[in-house]
Design goal:
Layout (H helix, E strand, L loop, with lengths): L3 E6 L3 H11 L2 H5 L2 E7 L3 E3 L4 H4 L9 H5 L3 E3 H5 L5 E4 L2 E5 L4 E4 L3 E4 L2 E4 L4 E2 L7 H4 L6 H17 L4 E5 L3 H21 L9 E6 L10 H14 L1 E5 L3 E4 L3 E4 L4 E3 L2 E4 L3 E2 L17 E2 L13 E3 L4 E2 L13 H19 L15 E4 L5 E4 L4 E4 H18 L2 H16 L3
Parallel strand pairs: 1-2, 1-9, 2-5, 9-20, 11-12, 11-17, 12-13, 19-21
Antiparallel strand pairs: 3-4, 6-7, 7-8, 10-18, 14-15, 15-16, 22-23, 23-24
Helix pairs in contact: 1-10, 7-8, 11-12
This protein binds flavin-adenine dinucleotide.
The site of flavin-adenine dinucleotide (FAD) has 34 residues, from helix 1, strand 2, helix 3 and helix 10.
Length: 413
């Protein structure tokens, strides 16, 4: 008799939350389903810590130590749970025969499939951008960026960093890099009167943080300017070369380090699956988060899914929180399906809460019922981080990781 199997592709925020939720659901085991979690990496990446990791001096952390602050081994997470982890890259999905293909591990049949493969950096075909800019999507990107900045800072008196894209990632990174550059300058010359570095944040839209409310945009813009970040909006980058970028206005901006945080798109693999895609290359889903034009047993969640808000018809934010919310919905939907019950609609929120760190111990937190800016916002951010670690890890491991990261990232404040 063939095994009954639920396959989850991608162990990021969405995939991992789905797997953890289903592993605790008695209906899944009672109906004899195996849970298989696939990822190309042996770890879960905590992306919310990447901007911090990119701004810690080598004096405080070696490369491996730094990477381990955001890469959490999946073996530690699923140790005592009924989840089988398979390390491999998803190379294809045969919807008709309900099979997935892995690059080096052959094929695997499924009864239900959850696609949670995240997103790729979108360079919008801007000439030179992919070639000359540094991305910030992985732990290696963060380590490479900090090493690059440190390397150049050693030989130059003043450093110019340009960040393209003032969404949440660009804003958090810009604020953190200002401090980092000052730390590096003080390491070189403890008696330097002031930092002579430039961090420029460029955004093509009219304001920073497109999609965020006006109050947050105003407060955060003010905070960035207070830190010394040069904020320029409404000016798209149209080309990049080895030494400078060209803006639509014709102005050329020289840089030492160029970082691109200006957009995401669906992972390339989705294009090969012959499933309906949105203009951003993400999977189009029905109100229950099932991928359109499939047999109803393939779900998509997180950054690789196109979920529009029913009122605005605009896509809901690509955040970890949304991926987790969708994951919980899909875990329940599959649980209902195996019990022969109909699947419910996914309910989007009218507005999503968020917390954005903006340099040192300052964060802007909008929790819908209240807003905080400053040190209280920063404390909220730390508590959210601890809560997430406690959700995925046994408490001693969660508490140790949280405390270790606090100490590490504090070195830059
Ligand atoms: C620098 C940065 C900072 C961020 N900060 C925040 C924040 O503070 N708060 C917040 O809410 N959101 C934040 N985000 C956004 C958040 O990380 C994403 O929205 C979230 O990770 C989406 O979850 P996901 O499960 O869809 O994808 P991911 O978490 O990206 O997971 C995708 C997984 O799929 C795996 N994968 C991909 N392709 C394959 C394949 N072919 N085969 C096998 N495995 C594959 C990947 O290895 C990865 O583990 C940040 C993003 C970045 C880049």
């Amino acid at each position: 008799m063939e095994e009954k199997r639920i396959v989850i592709a991608g162990a990021g925020f969405g995939g991992l939350t789905t797997a953890l939720a289903m592993s605790k659901d008695p209906a899944i085991a009672r109906h004899g389903y195996d849970l298989v979690l696939i990822d190309r990496h042996p770890h879960h990446l905590y992306t919310a810590g990447l901007y911090e990791a990119a701004a810690v001096s080598r004096h405080f952390a070696r490369d491996e130590y730094l990477a381990s602050s955001v890469c959490i081994p999946l073996a530690d997470i699923i140790r005592a749970l009924p989840i089988r982890f398979v390390q491999g890259t998803l190379a294809g999905v045969d919807v008709r025969n309900r099979r997935v293909t892995l690059d080096s591990q052959g094929t695997l049949s499924y009864d239900y499939l959850v696609l949670a493969l995240g997103a790729e950096t979108n360079y919008f075909d801007i000439p030179g951008l992919k070639e000359y800019s540094a991305p910030l999507k992985t732990a290696n990107d963060a380590v490479a960026l900090r090493n690059k900045i440190e390397g150049i800072a050693k030989s130059k008196h003043s450093l110019s960093i340009v960040i393209g894209g003032a969404g949440a990632t660009g804003v958090e990174l810009a604020a953190e890099l200002v401090n980092f550059l000052c730390v590096l300058e003080r390491e070189k010359n403890p008696r330097a009167p002031a930092c002579r570095t430039t961090v420029m944040l460029l955004e093509a839209s009219r304001d920073i943080l497109p999609g965020f409310d006006a109050h947050a945009v105003r407060r955060i813009t003010r905070r960035l300017r207070h830190l010394g970040v040069i904020v320029k909006t409404g000016i798209p980058i149209i080309a990049a070369s080895k030494d400078d970028i060209t803006l639509k206005s014709g102005e050329r901006v020289p840089y030492d380090v160029l970082v691109w945080t200006g957009g995401i798109k669906g992972p390339h693999i989705l294009k090969t699956l012959k499933l309906p895609l949105s203009p951003k290359g993400t999977l189009v889903v029905d109100p229950g988060l099932r991928v359109m034009q499939t047999d109803g047993r393939v779900f998509a969640i997180g950054d690789n899914a196109w979920v529009a808000h029913p009122r605005t018809k605009r896509p809901i934010p690509a955040t970890a929180q949304v991926a987790e919310q969708e994951a919980r919905h899909v875990a329940k939907a599959i649980s209902r399906a195996v019990r022969g019950k109909p699947i419910r609609r996914f309910r989007t929120m009218k507005k999503y809460p968020f917390v954005l760190a903006v340099g040192r111990k300052y964060a802007y937190a909008d929790l819908l019922v209240m807003r905080f800016a400053g040190r209280i916002g920063w404390c909220v951010k730390q508590l959210i981080q601890l809560r997430y670690f406690l959700f995925i890890l046994p408490w001693p491991r969660a508490a140790t990781l949280w405390w270790r990261n606090m100490m590490l990232y504090h070195s830059n404040d």
